[in-house]
Amino acid sequence: MKTRALGMVGLLAVVIAAIFGLFVVPPDANQGDAQRIMYVHVASAWLAYLSFGVTALGGLLFLWKRDLRFDAVALAGAEVGVMFTAFAIWGGMMWGKPVWGTFWQWEDPRLTTTALLLALYVGYLLLRHLTDDPMRRATRAAIVGLVAAVDIPIVHFSVVWWRGLHQTATFGDPAKLLHPSAPLLFVVALMGMLTAFTIVWAYLMIRRYQLARTAWQIEEHGRLGRISAARQAAVRPVRPVAEPHPEEVGS
Amino acid sequence: MTIARPAEPPLPQRRRRWGLIAAVAVVLAVIGYFAFSSIGDALVYYLTPTELMARGDAAYGQSVRLGGLVKAGSIEQGASADLTFVLTDQTTDVTVHSDTLPPSSFRENSGAVVEGTLQSNGTFQASQVLVKHDENYVAPSGSAVPSHVTP
Predict the structure, then answer these.
(1) Residue A107 maps to which CATH number?
(2) How far is A178 from chain B (nearest CA, A)?
(3) Interface contacts (A, B; CB < 8 Å)
(4) How far is B148 from chain A (nearest CA, A)?
(5) How many domains is chain A built from?
(6) pLDDT tens by residue, chain B, 151 residues
(7) Complex prediction ipTM
(8) Contact B64, A184 (CB under 8 A)
(9) Which domain holds residue A75?
(10) Run of H or E residues at B87
């Protein structure tokens, strides 16, 4: 029930922040209404970073403690993060076309490294299907999640390290992006959307974690069921063929 | 309904771990190299007018991207899509001509990135005009090494 309340609060916060960003804050002097995309774009990008950071942390803790609950946290981060990354890219393209004059530039470092980030974590999710052994799956995923996390700072600092079309970070110096005559409203709109998105993120993370644990329990239940069936089969002498030998039964 | 587990291969655990560490080290080294070496210059998204002109004769006819500020008062927009303006990095000016319409956010003193070639008459013929929309955009100074590249 508490989780559901969190989801409701998040949804309400997004609606309020959207109304604020769309109707209360004035449009940007140079970019017009298209600049309003910035609020959801920056919020999505922030949560993509946060999600994949959680995946890396979950992976690290799993490797250390060998506790599958950390793997479930890592999985939740990767899946939710892929969603927010895709959203950030999509919103960025919708913003780029009217303001930059192009949807996409492959040579822009920020755009390219972000596309790589998406590909890395889609790969992470695919990798998880390669084995049925939960421990092995978690170990492999943890390693890939940690290596992929290297791209997070590259994405973030790409606008500082290399020249590109993408402007520099909103976080370091928010004033850079803001309309001089109405800075406070812009900041409030951005912070409001950041907060709203983060609440929704927390809700999604909790739900995805719970789902992962439930899926694991079902998986484990099936495994135990098969083991006991195999034990019974070993006791009873006459059984159809193709039953596993007791020695083959995994512990 | 088989639950037979594939036999674990004899684990060269330690070797695998070293392989992993080596892989991570390589990845980190590549990032460090990109970040702190000037190889970034070979992969730059755009050249500044000064950098383009520093190429001398080699600058002409080459397909490049050029970035800078749109000089105040330099925009001449003719009938339909016939645009001329000056792109500057505060040291060197390049006159740009384009037959394509820029986005509506295009204006004086804003950043712009143009794609095209420098003609023999000194005009840059652009096939695409993009707007770099940071209001506080500061073009890299005219020096050969842009300030953001740490030696």
Answers:
(1) 1.20.120
(2) 8
(3) 105
(4) 7
(5) 1
(6) 556 666 555 555 666 778 778 877 887 787 777 666 655 555 678 999 999 988 888 888 888 999 999 999 888 887 677 899 999 998 999 999 998 888 888 888 888 999 999 998 989 999 999 998 764 323 233 333 333 333 3
(7) 0.74
(8) no
(9) 2-248
(10) strand B83-88
